[in-house]
Amino acid sequence: MASCGSNGVESPNTLQSICYNRGSLQLLDQRKLPLETIFLDIKDSTDGWNAIRDMVVRGAPAIAIAAALSLAVEVSNLGSFNGSPGDAASLLQSKLEYLVSSRPTAVNLSDAATKLKEVISKAAATSSEARSVFQAYIEAAEIMLEDDVASNKAIGSYGAKFMQQQMEKQKLSVLTHCNTGSESRLERMRNYREKGVTLKGLDHVSFNLATAGYGTALGVIRALHSGGVLERAYCTETRPFNQGARLTAYELVHDKIPATLIADSAAAALMRDGRVDAVVVGADRVASNGDTANKIGTYSVALCAKFHNVPFYVAAPLTSIDLSLSSGEEIVIEERSPKELLNTRGGLGEQVAASGISVWNPAFDVTPAGLIHGIITEKGVITKMSSADAFDIKAFIQKTG
Question: Site annotation (Transition state stabilizer): which residues (predicted)?
């Protein structure tokens, strides 16, 4: 265990989950929130793989960043390397493949690995020293941090404006599922960029819970709140790992956003009572037709929203979209440990279920595109014809560049 910074306890007015400076990475153990704030040292890609697999860090955008940085830290602290640039490239690419295996459903992780492999290949082809390949990788991983912050802000802005236009109400109440934040003090990152300071020049950089920046679905809620049009945010507990109760509720309280926590099973009753104007969730992977894999229970919420005529939106960066998949039927769904259901606190606490009971514990489910009103991205909101059951995401990407 290690502290984030120097005092071992997270400052009460920040929500840091990724603390990075070149050669050093610490991850907030999100399994312990909101009762404890503990940071873990991540020294190499093996530590990164374990942290992602064990849910120390979670949220598709954040795990991609954490994976990339864990390898950046490893090569930053690498001693002498006697191989060629090609050998360096092979080493990096094999470790990226290993990191991708930690959470196979999250497309951001594989997408980041693919982009980083391209950087590695180009560097190997033009470099005379292995160290130059490692340096190119480190810089590319750090650039991903800045890009994620910018895309989160854009998602929040586009989503808030679109929802206001569609519903034409002065105040909106929004339900979200799982955790897709956070903003914290990443406003400082924008200020650094405006001053021309690069990540290489930063002494210490902090990033946050499910993304590296403002948040996706939670970013939309933040944008609605900052615009003065959010009546109330509702968040589900999100069993069995309780990301909503432990993380989303934590962030909403921290940001002083009017919010109410509900049981997963209360979503339908909440909509029946007319308390929700819209639902917005994140995504771990979106197929080219708009079918969306997200935290288990999302499909149930979408079905309830459809029945009660509540618009259902997905907020996700374009890196969460996998155009190689024609539909959600092709999405690989990760299954988690039975302990997450058998024990309290997502498997970390005492056993409460009967010994000997079999367990089915998928981490995600797939919401069909027909249940989704719009997909909010950093380039705008992807919509479909009212009679269509699928989105034409390829056309949107071609149009927006």
Answer: 178
